[in-house]
Amino acid sequence: KAELLETNKVERTRLEMQHQEDSERIEQEHNEMLRKIRSEMDHRLAAEEAEMASTVALVRDESNRRITAEREAAARRLEETRAQTNKQLQKERQVTGSVMQVLKELPPLQTAIELGDLRMLEEELVKWTMDVLPERFGDCRGVVEAVVKLAQERLVTWRSVEHTWREVMREAEHLPDSLTALTRQSQRIFHVLKESQLTKIDLNRSDPEAMDRITQVLYAWQERAMLHSNVVQRLIVRKTVTWPHLGSFDFADLDICLRLVDRDPSCHVFLARAKALAENDNTSPQDLKPLLSHIETMLFFLKYTGTEDLWLAHKEFKNQVSELDPFVSQCLQWVEQEYPPGSELVKSVNGEDLMDGKNVNSVLRELRAPRSFLLRDSMGCFREIFYQWALAMKSTFNLMVLPHHTQVICLLIFRRFLEQESQHHALIAQVGTGEGKSMIIAALAVYIVVVLGKKVHVVVDDETLLERDFENFKRLFDAFTVPSQSLRISGRPLTAVLCVSEERLTRKATKGGKPCMVTRIDRDADICYCEAKHVQSF
C-alpha cells in the first residue's frame, strides 16, 4: 500500500511538471501569435495611412482644380452678363428716346381722331406726309405707321360723310311740300347722323349748327307726319338727335316711338308718363319703344285694378282642376284657403284714383302693412316683393302697379310646391301673353334666393327680351338682401347678373357698360338671367 501511494505521488508530480511545461509552451505560443498579429496590424495600418494620405492629396488637387475652373467660369459669366446688361441698357435708352419722340409728336394726331375733328385731322396729317418715317422713331415706327394709316383712312371716310352731309343740308334748305318727299329727306338726314356716329366724326366740329339743323328738319317732318303733334314727340326727336350712341335704333324706330305718343291731349295721363321718360337722361332711344308700350299696358290694367275679383280668379283656376295633377290640385286648394276672398293685398283701390299721389301713398302703406295678429298672413316675403316692385314702377313711370290676383295665386302655388315634399321635380305654369309672366318669374326668383337660400337661373330664348326683363327688374333685385346663416353676420346684398354675347358686352363696354353684365354664368350670383346656350355650357 505504501508503494502504491509512493507511485501515485511520483506520477502526480510528473503530471504537474508536464502540465506546467504545457502551460509555459502554450503561453509562449500565444505571445508569439500576438506579436505576429500586432506586427501585421501595424503593417496594414501604415499601408492604409499611406493610401489615405495619397487619396486626400488627390482629392485636394481635384477640388482645387474644380474651384479654379468654377471661379474662371463665374468670372466669364459675370463678364458676359455685364456686357449683356450694358447692351440692353443701351438698347432701352434708344427705345426710350424713340418712345419719347413718339409721345412728343403723335398725341395731336390721336387727339384729332378721338375728338372726331375733321379740320384738326387735316391739319395734323399735313405733318405726316413723308413716305418713310424718320429714324428718330426707332423701333416705334410700326406703331406710328399704324396710327398714321388709321388717320388717313379716317380722313377719307370723314370727308365722304361730310360731303354727303353738306349735300343733304343743301337740299334741306328748302323743305319739300310733299310729306313723302319730306319723309325721304328726313330718312337721309337720319342716315347721315347714324353714319357719323359709326365713323366717329363729330359733325358739330365741322358744322357747329349741325345738330340744330338736323333737329329742325325732323321737327318739320314730325309735325306733318303725326296727327297730334305734341311736346313729347319733340322731346323724343331731340333725345334721338343728341344721343351719342344710337346703335341699332333707326328711323323706323323713331317713327314708331313718335306714333306711340301720337295721342290726343285728352290722354294727358299717358302723355305725362311718356314725357317723364323722354326727359329722363338715363333712358336711351333704344329703351323708349318698349317702355312706352309698357306704359300703355300698365295703364290698361290699372284701369281695371279696382274691378278685379279674387273669387272669380279662384273660380277660373278651379275650372282646370280636372286637367291638373292631384298634387297641383292640392296646392291650389291650399292657396284658396290661405288667400281667400276678403284677404286681398290692398282693399282701398275700389273707387280711388290711383293716379293721385295721396291715394298711391296710401295704397303703398297698406300693401306693406303686416296683417293683424289674429289673421295669418300667407304672403310672407311676397308682400315685401310686391311693395318693392310697386316702388320701382312708381319711380320709373310714376304709376301705381299692383300684382293681379292671378299672379298672386300662381306665386303661392309655386311656393307650396317648393316647400312641400313631392315625387315631382318640376312645375310648369302656362301664362298668357300680357298676363305678367315676367313679374311672376322675377318675384319667384327673389323668393327662392331670399327664403329658400338657393340660386336661380332665369332662361329667356331671346337676347333682347332677356335684357329688357333684366333691366326692368334690376331695381327690384337691388332692394333685397340675402340672410346670413350666422346670427352674428348681417345679410349681404342680393346679386343679379345678365348673360350676354361677347359682341354685345364689348358694345356695352365702349358705351360705359354695367358691371352686372357677363358672358358666362357667374357661380356666385344669386340670380342670373341667361339664354339656354349659357346654361348648356355651365
Short description:
By secondary structure, this protein is mainly alpha-helical.
Description of the molecule:
This protein has 538 residues and is mainly alpha-helical. The chain is built from 20 helices and six strands. It has a four-stranded parallel beta sheet. β4, α19 and β5 (517-518) form a beta-alpha-beta unit. α16 packs parallel to α17 and α17 crosses α18. It is flat. The mean pLDDT is 83.
List the main descriptive attributes of the protein structure presented here.
20 helices, mainly alpha, two-stranded antiparallel sheet, 4-stranded parallel β-sheet, 538 residues
Shape assignment: flat
First-residue to last-residue Cα separation: 125 Å
Helicity range? 55-70%
Radius of gyration: 47 Å
SSE map:
Blueprint: H1 2-105, H2 107-115, H3 118-125, H4 141-172, H5 179-199, H6 203-206, H7 210-225, H8 231-242, H9 251-260, H10 268-279, H11 285-303, H12 310-318, H13 326-338, H14 357-368, H15 381-397, H16 405-419, H17 437-450, E1 456-459, H18 463-478, E2 481-482, E3 492-493, E4 496-499, H19 502-510, E5 517-518, E6 527-530, H20 532-536
Parallel strand pairs: 1-6, 4-5, 4-6
Antiparallel strand pairs: 2-3
Helix pairs in contact: 2-3, 3-4, 4-5, 5-7, 7-8, 8-10, 9-11, 10-11, 13-16, 15-17, 16-17, 17-18
